[in-house]
Design goal:
The protein has four domains: about 5-60, Beta-grasp domain (Ubiquitin-like (UB roll), Roll); about 70-240, Threonyl-tRNA Synthetase, Chain A, domain 2 (2-Layer Sandwich), CATH 3.30.980.10; about 255-535, Bira Bifunctional Protein, Domain 2 (BirA Bifunctional Protein, domain 2), CATH 3.30.930.10; about 550-640, Anticodon-binding domain (Rossmann fold). An eight-stranded mixed sheet has the order 15-19-20-27-24-23-21-22, sandwiched between helices. A five-stranded mixed sheet has the order 2-1-5-3-4. It is globular and about 90 Å long. By secondary structure, it is an alpha+beta fold. It has 20 helices and 32 strands. The protein binds one RNA strand through strand 11, strand 12, helix 8, strand 24 and helix 16.
Length: about 650
RNA sequence: GCUGGCGUAGCUCAGCGGUAGAGCAUCUGAUUUGUAAUCAGAGGGUCGGGGGUUCGAAUCCCUUCGCCAGCUCCA
């Protein structure tokens, strides 16, 4: 009888019969893991637990705690969904059904849309199939037979998919009850493992994501190995909704959208405007400190300029339509670069002036298709914290380092700690895609790379993701709902200096082409503000809070004293409100809490006599009475240190 | 832009062919209040806009605008 050698993760070697399955190995070893494991890795490949082992191999087991294990788990959940849908709606045509970061989906083509009631029915059917503990069976099938099988059932999308993905003469399918899916696998042994799942939504999606292809109905869901984990996930969703800046912004009177004015256009209310002013004040001070010069450029400029810059060619679909003024076409600006370039080119530049760092809080307008605008995060008019650095090739590396450091400081100052850094470089196989000389690209990519390495930053290298005009570093930030938002971007530009024929006089007396670096740290003030609202759930740290302190007189008898306290704080530069309404103290506290005001100062008879204030923090509650001067010192300290805690 | 869902008072929502409702908010009055909602009264809506069906439309149909979830795209 043939035997093979299995090497377990702890180094132990087991002799087993050939064609023993990982599940059988597992059962001999450790019963607890036998229940948790959902897939095995043999010879570096993930395989089903009941896939026979043919040769000597290291073997380990994955549970849903491993990201790869969770992916398999969710992938199998998608199959369960499709199996249920096929039972209830045999006429549907199947698309694809992969796992996602948050769960899974499966795509179907069907004339009628799925209703919420349909989803409930599907969920019940899934539970039924799960309770029957349907096995996931892997079968190998000649490719042609598989194609015929699906063709008979008029599963056109599956056929298309097999023709594209099915390599070799044999393909694998997975059978779950009556449901047969062309699929590479691997899968969990049986549906009973999917203890907790929930269908979340149904949405349209183009087949293969290509606009113009038929619209599939995509059913989204999520699943977990236990109900507790599903509940936890649903709570997090709830929490994300609670922090949604689109809800909090208007509630806290920070900003609004006015349908009369048009979608994607932001109205900053006084409180939001104040926060923005504080943010910008910080930024402007940093610009001066770091050798940037602030400029302003016009919002409409001749179309000719946008032809020169190339935007009219490659960016037109994102630009508002042009307008005519005295027979000359004009264009609302979608970017700030050409304006800054005109300032650079206004006169001869010497190498002695470089690096020249021109910064602008530049408001731009971009045409975004109506379905994509989203609160503050995706809008049609926004302000970029933009700057363009013109420098000599030798200065590039230092400039890049300065930009990355500045970007991290700009995000950290506002309380963010989780970033994802991406380095986007060219695809060397497609040189025709990129403007500029190869040696420029090499130098630029080298500068970006060495900067990131120098700073000890973890980053993802994105080959082929560079823009045609230059490589770039992007910093992304993950928001409350786990969506990554691109904020900072630092880009080389080999294109515009060429197009505008930029030059400087070097030490040798000859003209040279400057290098141009384009960078934005927050990306847009609007987007950054939106992310900020969600990050703090509207409870801004005291240095940013539009109202830092509210004074609450206990009754009218203490109103005068409350007024004095408020005046005193206001005179010292704090942002204070006095709540002198004819309301009970409890009601005033409730309202102040809902407005997320960092500090409440309760002023009644006792405080008036003692010359104190009773301090209540929005996060720590009642802190008891203290002299006003003492509170003020503490408040000043927290503003100074930009403390997040109140 | 595409697919689907949703637009009723400032907000949250009920009403779903037969005279537009509730709670909160607002205003007025009473109360003079001690750490998350005091009581009473009043005002407030061309039911997103336009068109149609009907004796009669918030309710049914068409159209348009906006919002939401995705797809695609992006700071």
């Amino acid at each position: 009888m043939d035997t093979i050698k299995i090497t377990l993760p702890d180094g132990q070697v087991e002799q087993v019969r050939k064609r023993t399955t990982p599940l059988e190995v597992l059962k001999k070893l450790n019963t607890r893991l036998a229940e948790q494991a959902i897939v095995a890795r043999a010879n570096g490949e993930l395989i089903d637990l009941n896939q026979p082992l043919e040769r000597d191999t290291p073997l380990n087991f994955l549970t849903p705690d491993d990201p790869e294990g969770m992916f398999v788990f969710r992938h199998s959940s998608a199959h369960l969904l499709a199996a249920a849908v096929l039972e209830l709606f045999p006429e549907v045509k199947l698309g694809v059904g992969p796992p996602t970061d948050q769960g899974f989906f499966y795509e179907f083509y069907r004339e009628q849309p799925f209703t919420p009631e349909d989803l409930e029915k599907i969920e019940r059917k899934m539970a039924e199939l799960r309770d029957r503990d349907l096995p996931f069976e892997r079968r190998m099938m000649p490719r042609e037979e598989c194609l015929r099988f699906y063709a008979e059932q008029q599963q056109d999308f599956k056929c298309e998919f097999i023709r594209e993905k099915g390599v070799g003469n044999e393909v694998s399918v997975y059978v779950t009850g009556k449901f047969v899916d062309f699929c590479r696998g691997p899968h969990i042994p049986s549906a009973g493992r999917i203890k907790a799942f929930k269908l979340l939504s149904v949405a349209g999606a183009y087949w293969k994501g290509v606009e113009g292809n038929p619209q599939m109905q995509r059913i989204y869901g999520t699943s977990f190995p236990s109900q507790a984990e599903l509940d936890d996930f649903l709570h997090r969703l709830e929490e994300a909704r609670r922090r949604d800046h689109r809800k909090l912004g208007p509630e806290l009177d920070l900003f609004s959208l006015q349908p009369e004015a048009g979608p994607g256009l932001i109205f900053w209310h006084p409180k939001g405007g104040l926060v923005r002013t504080l943010m910008e004040d910080w930024l402007r001070a940093e610009y001066r400190r770091r050798g940037y010069q602030l400029v302003f450029t016009p919002h409409v400029m001749r179309q000719e300029l946008w032809k020169t810059s190339g935007h009219l060619n490659w960016y037109q679909e994102n630009m508002f339509p042009g307008m005519e003024v005295e027979k000359a076409p004009y264009q609302l600006k979608p970017m700030n670069c050409p304006g800054h370039i005109l300032i650079y080119r206004d006169r001869r530049r010497s190498y002695r002036e470089l690096p020249l760092r021109l910064a602008e809080l530049g408001t731009v307008y971009r045409y975004e298709r109506s379905g994509v605008v989203h609160g503050l995060l995706r809008v049609r008019g926004f302000t970029v914290d933009d700057a363009h650095i013109f420098c000599t090739p030798d200065q590039v590396e230092g400039e890049i380092r300065g930009c990355v450091q500045f970007a991290l400081d700009a995000l950290k100052t506002f309380g963010f700690e989780r970033f994802e850094v991406e380095l986007s470089v060219r695809d060397p196989a497609r040189p025709e895609h990129y403007a500029g000389k190869v040696e420029d690209w090499e130098r630029a990519e080298g500068a970006l790379l060495s900067t990131l390495n120098h700073m000890g930053l973890l980053f993802k290298r994105m080959q082929g993701e560079a823009v045609f005009y230059g490589p770039k570093i992007d910093v992304k930030l993950v928001d409350a709902i786990g969506r990554p938002w691109q904020l900072s971007t630092i880009q080389f530009d080999f294109n515009l200096p060429e197009r505008f024929d930029l030059k400087y006089t070097a030490a040798d007396g000859a003209f040279h082409r400057p290098v141009m670096v384009h960078r934005a740290l927050w990306g847009s003030v609007e987007r950054f503000f939106g992310v900020l609202i969600e990050h703090y759930a509207g409870a801004f740290p005291v240095w940013l809070a539009p109202v830092q302190v509210v004074v609450l007189p206990v009754s009218e008898k203490a109103a005068d004293y409350g007024g004095q306290v408020a005046d005193q704080l206001r005179a010292d530069g704090f942002r204070v409100e006095l709540d002198a309404r004819n309301e009970k103290l409890q009601a005033k506290i409730r309202d102040a809490q809902l407005q997320k005001i960092p500090y409440m100062l309760i002023c009644g008879q006792k405080e008036k006599e003692a010359g104190t204030v009773s301090v209540r923090s929005r996060s720590r509650g009642d802190l008891g009475p203290q002299p006003l001067a003492e509170f003020q010192r503490e408040l000043a300290r927290r503003v100074e240190t930009r403390a997040v805690e109140t």
